[in-house]
Give the backbone structure.
Amino acid sequence: MSETTAPASPVLSVRNLHKRYEDQHVLRGVGFDIHKGQVKAVLGPSGSGKSTMLRLMALLEPADDGEILLHGKRIGVREGGARGGAAVALPERELAKERRNIGMVFQKFNLFPHLSACRNVMLGLTSVKGVPHKDAEEQAMAMLARVGLSHRSGHFPSELSGGQQQRVAIARALVMNPDVLLFDEPTSALDPELVGEVLDVMESLAQDGMTMIVVTHEVRFARRVADEVTLFDGGVIVEQAAPDDFFDNPQHERTRKFLSHVH
C-alpha cells in the first residue's frame, strides 16, 4: 500500500487579519494560505482593502489583530512569552530582517531617481544583506537580464519608460530571493501599450515557480496565470476559487456583479 503524502505547509498564511484607521474598519478578519509556486490573483473595487492587506503582509504596517505566518512562524511581532501576554510589534531593525523574505512591487515603482537601474537593484543586497559591491553588481546585472533590461543597466529612472521602471522594481525585489512576492496593482500606473511587457515578466516568473500574490485589475492575466482568484470587497474575501470556476461559475451575487462590470 502506498504511503499518503502529507500536504505541504503554506509558504504564507494570514489568520483573522484586522486593520482600522480611526473609525474606518478596513480589514475585517481576512484569512487565507498560499503555497509554494502558487499564484493568487486578488481582484476587487478600489478602497476594498486589497493594498492594505499587502502592506500588512509585507510588514510595512502593523495589524490591529490577527496573525501573519511565514513557513508556519509568526512574523512582525514578538510573542508575549510564557505568561501569555499580548504579542508586541518588533523593533524596526528586526522587522527589516524579516522583510527580506517578502518582496513587494509597488504601483508607483518607488525607484531612487539618483541611482542607475543597476544601483537601484543592488541597494538591498549591499545595505540589507551586506553583499560585497562586486558580487552585488553581478547579481543585479543577472536580475536585470532576467527582466530583459541588461542593456539599460546604466540608465537612471528618468531615462526609462514606465514599463522599464516597473521591470527594474521587479528585479530589485527578485534579487533579494524572497519566499513570496507581492504585487500591488503593478500595471495600473502604466500607459496601456506598456502593460504587456510587465505582465510578460510576471507570467515568466509564475512559470518558473515564483510564489506570488497579485492585486490587479488585469482580468485576462488573472484567468491565464493564477492558480486561485479572489474577490475582495469591504475588507473581506467574498469568493475565492480556481480561475475557471471563479469566472465561469461564480457562487456569489457580488462576484457576478463585479465581473459584469470588468468584462
In short: Residues 45 and 233 are 7 Å apart (CA to CA). DSSP finds nine helices and twelve strands in the chain. The mean pLDDT is 91.
